Amino acid sequence: MTTTLYPSFSILLVDDEPDWLYSMSITLERAGLTNIITCADSREALKMMTEHAVGVVLLDLTMPHLSGEELLERIAEEHPEVTVIIVSGLNQLETAVHCMRSGAFDYYVKTAEEGRIVKGVKRAVREKELQLENRELRNRFLYDRLEHPEAFRDIVTGDKGMRSIFQYVEAVALSSQPILVTGESGVGKELIVAALHRLSGRKGELVAVNVAGLDDAMVSDTLFGHVKGAYTGAGEARKGMIEQAADGTLFLDEIGDLSLGSQVKLLRLLQEGEYYPIGSDRPRRIRARVVVATHQDLAARQAAGQFRNDLYYRLRAHHLHVPPLRKRKDDIPLLLDHFLGLAAREFGKKKPTLPKELAVLLSTYDFPGNVRELKAMVYDAVSLHQGGVLSMEAFVRAIGERPVQAAAEQPAEPSENPFFGVDRLPGFTEAIDLLVAEAVRRAEGNQSIAARLLGVSQPTLSKRLKQQRGE
Ligand SMILES: Nc1ncnc2c1ncn2[C@@H]1O[C@H](COP(=O)(O)OP(=O)(O)OP(=O)(O)O)[C@@H](O)[C@H]1O
């Protein structure tokens, strides 16, 4: 079985004592840090650093030929981007201060508790990962490029904001830290998660678990699995989803609905990197990268005490928010055409021609169900289609079932308040005239669509327009 090495860069241990190199490698590997190389001759260290992508060095001080202090200075000069941690047999304040001044990230005494050294190495790895991600992100934005556009082939969009999301996805895809994907229902979060997994280069599977509606016991059993006889009815041992996702991605959907009890368990899993299958007292290491998604406003849930602060901050380190379709209306014609092709193929029909007014009608609608809703409308329309121009009926019916511009339920931003910054309110008749003119403009002159936007019948609107013209 191939195992994904973590982190993506190597951790180099330099010490002339082979026993220490061996025991430290094992300790770090047990803590989940598997990308380790060792060097027992300090004169070889710089050469190894040019041959391997080294991100962190653990360096002994007392070594023959080339001392740790000398090597530290050479590393700081030739590889300033590499983080060096001193692990010395000497507990000397003066030496420690000197090393820190020469650029060391941290200083530990070998006799110190191993757990502290491991924590220090993990902190250095985390900082290095963030540095690399930031650099990557800066480059991507600077050159506005996508390294792997093919990873996003299923996501149809021409929107700039979505393109920035793709760039962010590429920048964090290799990170082992959790990733939070938010956005209203139906915006395409699952597609983003699939791209994240594809780009992670992880050889394991993408395993998705929808945690909404699972009680604490079900969450534990599903994620952690159980040993045989763990509880009445557990006749056979069962692997948890964490294990199924080994060397892959564990995708926890609807995380905003996770109960407070299960939130504690998830936090512990992310912090310790360990879990216990139910009925077992032997911990297992998680080897999957965790991605979570929710359509809920986690910050609001956190403020209401329904979501733990510590978990929220842990999850938020890498956060991407997929905008609703109403905020990227230029995507509507692209998606319309895409789904039309898919639906026609699925129903074995010729791709229909679109009525001219359809794009206008759809552009006036807010799509509370986002892309999923548009897709359903198109499939419905194509299933009824008899040939020639596509009928608007399925769309008009679907939109009619929902109040137009249902997004009014969303909290209004100042810029969405039509009276924001307006000192003088228009008179009643003037307001109606303004409203009518705006609806006709948005409907590109189509009176039946404009009437729908205003919530009046078409004859009523027509009468009003005639009155305005003095007819
Ligand atoms: N940009 C897009 N291009 C093509 N298809 C899309 C796009 N966005 C969404 N879809 C399609 O719309 C449907 C809903 O997308 P998806 O399941 O990814 O949404 P979601 O945000 O995960 O929703 P939920 O929060 O309800 O789980 C899917 O069939 C998906 O393939």
Automatic annotation (TrEMBL):
List of residues that carry 4-aspartylphosphate: D60
Keywords carried by this UniProt record: ATP-binding, Nucleotide-binding, Phosphoprotein, Transcription, Transcription regulation
Residues in Response regulatory domain copies: 10-125
Domain of life of the native organism: Bacteria
One term of GO molecular function: DNA-binding transcription factor activity
Gene Ontology biological process terms in this record: phosphorelay signal transduction system
Pfam families attached to this UniProt entry: AAA_lid_14, HTH_8, Response_reg, Sigma54_activat
CDD domains per UniProt: AAA
Domain HTH lysR-type intervals: 444-471
Transcription regulation as UniProt keyword: yes
Annotated Sigma-54 factor interaction domain residues: 155-383
Transmembrane segments: none
Presence of keyword Transcription regulation: yes
Protein's name according to its UniProt entry: Sigma-54 dependent transcriptional regulator
Organism name: Geomonas paludis
